[in-house]
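User: Hi! I'm working on a homework problem where we have to compare a predicted structure to a textbook description. Could you give me the structure for the chain below?
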Amino acid sequence: MLAALLVTPIAGPMVAMLPTRRAGISIYVWIGSFGLHRAREFNKVIDAYVLRNEAQMRAKLLPQALDVFAAHRAKGDRVVVATGAPPELARAILAFVAHQDVPVIGTEVGPRLGGVGPTRHCHNEEKMRMLRERGYGDIDIAYSDSTADLPLLLAAKAPVVVNPKPAKVEFFRRVLPAGTRILNWGCVDRGGDRA
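Assistant: Happy to help. Predicted structure tokens:
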């Protein structure tokens, strides 16, 4: 904890800016995982964390998002979760809502200088490369809240922006195709049209 506080004057601003976000996050992950030597050990820490915090995590899941997710699956749509988080974290959360069989593409981790760090960050353009490598090149619908996912949103036939930061709504309207839905699924401090 002390190490994380000590690096925050440098790593904190790095996380806040898109061009340096990966490096900033990597610093914190490395500090938190120091002493772990394999992705398998890191995944066990993630699983334990999710179990300890299940109630709080469940409370943060958006009912509207879960309904949309379930509706896509019920229609037989091919659904994949692409996240900047490690896949184990996304899988553990999906297990809460009985969607543990959904493919997950996320940040790959491995040994780094006495800890664990990203070996391939599922972020921005790299997220699209990782999706294509796994056979998900044709994207009908993509949902995201982040400008970091602009390559994904631009690749989708029907991009949907959900719960963006209010200051980013006009940016999304400018760069995405006319008629792109920008929705708010119940987050009072976020932008978008109430769905």
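For your comparison, note the following. The longest strand covers residues 115-120. The chain has nine helices and eight strands. Good luck with the assignment!
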